[in-house]
Amino acid sequence: xxxxxxxxxxxxxxxxxxxxxxxxxxxxxxxxxxxxxxxxxxxxxxxxxxxxxxxxxxxxxxxxxxxxxxxxxxxxxxxxxxxxxxxxxxxxxxxxxxxxxxxxxxxxxxxxxxxxxxxxxxxxxxxxxxxxxxxxxxxxxxxxxxxxxxxxxxxxxxxxxxxxxxxxxxxxxxxxxxxxxxxxxxxxxxxxxxxxxxxxxxxxxxxxxxxxxxxxxxxxxxxxxxxxxxxxxxxxxxxxxxxxxxxxxx
Length: 250
Prior knowledge:
The protein has helices at 41-49, 73-78, 96-105, 116-129, 147-161, 177-190, 206-209, 230-238, 240-249; strands at 2-12, 15-26, 30-34, 55-63, 66-67, 81-84, 91-95, 140-141, 165-169, 196-200, 214-219, 222-227. Helix 3 packs parallel to helix 5 and helix 5 packs parallel to helix 6 (177-190). The protein has a single domain, classed as Rossmann fold (3-Layer(aba) Sandwich), CATH 3.40.50.300. Helices cover 36% and strands 29% of the residues. The protein is α/β, with parallel strands linked by helices. It is built from 9 helices and 12 strands. The strands form 3 sheets. It has a 6-stranded mixed sheet, sandwiched between helices. 34% of the residues are buried.
């Protein structure tokens, strides 16, 4: 069982960004993608999630064998996909508690209702784990939040929804070391044989806290190199020009 991306080609405004990307994330594993600006990292996450600005021209994306490219965004979410945004959106007028509760309710069979007491007990426990003030339950989603608060809120949503596959698009962006530690703690608490992670990042520092099983290098719209966690250290030391030089020599 896996999130499988096969020969994926995708464009935005007739410019091809992904150029035959192939990748498989089995359940139980954390895969990291690193790459220079413009290589297609955020495009990959948005295409998988179903962003309307991107056109898939070839290839497939499946979750446990089920094709998701023809699904609407909400259907992809209910199929078990979660995307933590690099820049989380604000949702004025909708409280955190109601937002998460509505997302959970949408996954229940018709006629079944969430137990409010059990819901808040679970919500508060996870907020405590993320060192979030419980007052955030009544605040509008991400409105007026600091960068670190928004990222913690994304992880809170992920922890409550318990998806099969979590895609984290530069979640470390804008985080100080304390916020990074707390966010990583929440992610690590979710690691499970029944869940896969795709962690997209520019920097190796995140991978000190969320240790990946596999590291991939995305360059010019393709995965060009894969290896164990030490590959991230090598990239940090040598930079992406090293990858470019290796490709030219091949």
